[in-house]
Design a protein that fits this description.
- The structure holds three protein chains of three kinds.
- Chain A has five helices and five strands.
- Chain A is of the alpha/beta class.
- In chain C, strand 2 and strand 3 form a beta hairpin.
- The chains are: A alpha/beta, B alpha+beta, C alpha+beta.
- Chains in contact: A-C, B-C.
- The interface between B and C is medium-sized, with 29 and 34 residues.
């Protein structure tokens, strides 16, 4: 937890962003967490700043999380990009894996978020 | 025996007391085991704590083999499956679940009853997962499993039959559409009439003719034409609407459309029986075209007849009126010949001879022309004519005239009897025989007469062994005044064969010749066995 | 009357979406074809006559209903116009010969679909809010949409009007999309309790 990281949360649900943000900051207090409510806003934000973690909701109006993840993967080969969804269909999981995206099942819980980040940090 | 009603209390004391220890458990266990459904209870730790008799029978696993084990240890395939997830939700969140046979085929590996074994590998199951809240043990989970294999089988059967029915409907619809299309696109109007007098147009053409814009009289005409409709009052149609005599078999009627057009129709009627009733199919064919052609032909025929008869009139008049002055010339030249022959010089004798010869030839030509014109003008009605008798008369005539040697007219076999005008037929064959003899060597000339029948006609052949006719002239020899030879070579006016042709024509027959130069000629008279209607005596 | 803040509304939406996402993945595994489920909007109305379903009052609808009881109670139901329900079941079952009404087996399949979705929604709420909910077995009903809810006249007179939370759900299947509704019928006390739980949860989570 020595390293300070930057995180971008992309989710159309404000509640979901709040929840995830709360879970992360309670364990990683000084991390910088930005939010975007859809893909186009997210793409705008990554123009000026690069992030270590990009957490994307799957179901969003406009571009979905998979499509956005594909674009971001190309720009940020070293970042952790994860797809958050309650829909744990094999097909979507497989697509995410093929694009080099991580997969996080909704609903997010504090333990789930913490374990996920710790595992990612350890492998860096 | 009826018990006295005064002591019900004592009798009502239950002999089986559910409150007594052990009794309730015994009863419930027995009830669970006699149930016709599978009953499984799972403890909060997911292990089986009840497995009823039904489950034992259908799974083949005794209770003591499964108690204390988790479902996925008993049936490994159910791990991660719908049943396991439902059990998890039930135990964790108290959620009940419906597990339907359609969405989960054979959710648990249970055997079907023997009667279904042929078509089902597994029992079809409808499962309910219930949370059971207990005071002492927390939330348990119950599985209630019903065997719905029969229902699934019925459902399959129902769908199969529905599919077959749908297919049947499609097929019959298709064939009906086809029949309708054929009917609609038929040029003829088709109607069906039942014996109660109801007439129904079957296609658009029929609708046109018999519908509201058609001819209101037409239905009445059809009813009039139908047999067996005597229990319906029918007024005979106006006579001008029936174009043909009903006796002839061809029925033609006239329809008048609202637009004022008159359409001649040929009516054909056939019948069929259905629903124990007689129905008639009436076909109406528009024969306007045919009628127009018939009229055209009739007009042409009338025109031809008129010009023919004018010609005959002219020929008769000419030949008749020429006879009188000719007879005078002829008489006087013969008188000069008798008086002055040998009394003047040789040149005068020669001139007189030419004059006599010329008048005689002219006499014969005029006679023949008269004969020719009479063939048309003075024809007699047709009667049966035995050709054997006819040729007897011809031979007798030749004998009397001494114009033919004995035995040079040969008849083979029996000749038929034909329909015709006896005197004209005599003239016809006498001319042909005479021709045959004329163009033959007078000593060895021989004419052979024989016949051959075809199915529809009599053929009478007159064959000679004479000089023959070049094929290029076969067409023209039947024309009037056509002679192939000079006057000196063979006697004749050039009208004989024209007369023969005209007589044959009048009898509806064909006169033809087969011949080659030096090989003799065969004339063939072909007369029809049935006389065509147009060749009646009055039309010629 | 139903004064939910935007965040509270959004929270309920997200909980429901998590639920239907789960339901979609269970369904797609069961029918071995991709099934997507989304809830594009959630609305709260006080009268059934304000719902979209009430616009065609004589349309026959199929409904799978489960009652629930806990800190908040009421009835949850998945509702489709009958034709849509036929379409849905037949797409899921890949039935070759469609009949013009649901057969018993198809009806049970629809019940299971409803059960999965309703359980997922209720389970998601219950799970996240940390409050257990008791659910009944699903039941099936088919009737005209105007008589979908058994509203007791006496209750109406007593002023305990139900509040409807209406989810417009969209099934996206391989060949077609099918629209239906999930209705949560609760009394005013229950909806207040739901809001209270959401507030408490937000306060706890976000510190």
């Amino acid at each position: 937890m020595a390293q300070q990281r930057s995180v971008l949360l992309v989710d159309d649900s404000k509640f979901a962003r709040l929840l995830v943000k709360a879970f992360i900051s309670s364990n990683f207090t000084d991390w910088e967490i930005d939010e975007a409510e859809d893909a186009s806003k997210a793409l705008e934000m990554v123009e000026g700043k690069s992030y270590d973690y990009l957490l994307l909701d799957f179901n969003m109006p406009g571009m979905n999380g998979l499509e956005l993840g594909e674009q971001l993967r190309g720009r940020f080969p070293d970042s952790v990009i994860a797809l958050l969804t309650a829909n744990i269909q094999q097909e979507i999981q497989k697509k995410a894996a093929n694009l080099g995206l991580e997969f996080l099942a909704k609903p997010p819980t504090e333990e789930k978020m913490r374990d996920f980040i710790l595992a990612q940090e350890a492998s860096r | 025996m009826k018990k006295p009603s005064s002591k019900p209390q004592k009798d009502a004391t239950p002999s089986f007391d559910l409150d007594r220890e052990g009794n309730a458990a015994e009863l419930f266990a027995a009830l669970l085991d006699t149930a016709d459904t599978g009953l499984v209870a799972l403890a909060p730790d997911r292990t089986v704590c009840h497995w009823n008799q039904w489950m034992q029978t259908r799974s083949g696993l005794r209770a003591d083999e499964v108690l204390g084990k988790a479902l996925h240890d008993i049936f490994p395939e159910t791990r991660m499956g719908r049943v396991s997830l439902a059990i998890e939700d039930c135990l964790k969140f108290g959620m009940p679940a419906v597990i339907s046979p359609s969405l989960n085929q054979g959710a648990l590996p249970l055997s079907p009853l023997p009667q279904f074994a042929a078509s089902f590998d597994r029992m079809e199951q409808s499962i309910r997962v219930h949370p059971i809240k207990t005071k002492s043990n927390g939330t348990l989970c119950s599985l209630i499993i019903r065997d719905v294999t029969l229902a699934v089988q019925r459902d399959r059967l129902l769908r199969k039959q529905a599919a077959e029915l749908a297919e049947l409907v499609t097929q019959s619809k298709r064939s009906e559409d086809r029949t309708k299309a054929i009917l609609q696109n038929t040029i003829d109007a088709i109607l069906v009439a039942s014996d109660d007098g109801n007439i129904e147009p079957l296609n658009s053409r029929a609708q046109e003719l018999c519908g509201p814009d058609g001819d209101p009289e037409l239905r009445n005409i059809i009813r009039f034409l139908l047999p067996d409709s005597d229990h319906i009052a029918i007024t005979p149609p106006p006579p001008n609407r029936l174009l043909t005599d009903l006796g002839t078999g061809v029925i033609e009627v006239l329809a008048l459309t609202k637009t004022g057009r008159s359409v001649p129709l040929e009516v054909a009627i056939s019948h069929f029986s259905a629903d124990q009733r007689y129905h008639y199919i009436i076909t109406l064919r528009d024969i306007s075209q045919r009628k127009r052609h018939e009229m055209e032909i009739q007009r042409t025929m009338a025109e031809l007849e008129r010009s023919n008869s004018e010609l005959e009139q002219f020929a008769y008049a000419a030949s008749h009126d020429l006879q009188e002055p000719l007879r005078m010339v002829s008489s006087y030249t013969q008188l000069i010949a008798r008086r002055y022959e040998g009394k003047l010089d040789d040149t005068a004798d020669e001139f007189i001879h030419y004059a006599v010869d010329g008048t005689q030839r002219m006499q014969r030509m005029i006679d023949d022309l008269l004969t020719l014109s009479r063939v048309g003008r003075h024809g007699k009605p047709f009667h049966p004519v035995p050709l054997d008798d006819l040729f007897d008369a011809i031979v007798a005539n030749f004998k009397r005239a001494g114009s033919a040697p004995e035995g040079n007219i040969i008849r083979e076999d029996h000749l038929p009897t034909v329909m015709g005008d006896a005197s004209q037929l005599l003239l016809l064959f006498q001319n042909l025989v005479s021709n045959g003899l004329k163009y033959s060597d007078p000593q060895n000339g021989r004419v052979r007469i024989f016949s051959a029948d075809t199915p529809n006609s009599h053929r009478i052949f007159v064959e000679d062994n004479g000089i023959g006719i070049d094929p290029q002239y076969h067409e023209t020899i039947f024309e009037i005044f056509k002679r192939l030879h000079g006057y000196g070579d063979y006697a004749g006016t050039g009208i004989g064969l024209a007369i023969c042709k005209k007589i044959t024509d009048r009898h509806g027959g064909i006169l033809s010749v087969t011949s080659n130069v030096g090989e003799g000629s065969t004339f063939c008279v072909e007369l029809p066995k049935e006389l065509p209607i147009v060749a009646t005596s009055e039309s010629m | 009357m139903i004064d939910l803040s935007e965040l509270e509304h959004d929270t309920i939406s997200e909980l429901i979406n998590i639920g239907v996402g789960r339901a979609a993945s269970s369904l797609s595994e069961m029918v071995e074809q991709p099934v997507e489920l989304t809830v594009p909007r959630i609305t709260f109305v006080e009268r059934f006559s304000d719902t979209e379903l009430a616009k065609a009052p004589t349309e026959v609808v199929s409904a799978v209903s489960q009652t629930f009881d806990g800190p908040f109670k009421g009835e949850a139901m998945l509702v489709f116009p009958e034709e849509r329900s036929l379409e849905l079941v037949r797409s899921l079952l890949k039935v070759e010969v469609p009949l013009d009404t649901l057969t018993d087996l198809e009806q049970e399949a629809l019940m299971e679909v409803g059960n999965i979705i309703l359980n997922a929604c209720l389970g998601s709420i219950s799970n996240v809010l940390g409050e257990p909910i008791n659910c009944s077995m699903p039941s099936f009903r088919k009737r005209e949409s105007r008589s979908l809810l058994d509203v007791d006249q006496a209750e109406l007179n007593a002023g305990s009007m139900p509040v409807l939370m209406i989810l417009h759900v969209q099934f996206m299947l391989r060949h077609n999309d099918i629209d239906g509704y999930v209705l949560f019928v609760m009394d005013l006390d229950s909806i207040q309790m739901l809001r209270e739980l959401v507030r408490r949860f937000l306060a706890n989570s976000l510190g």
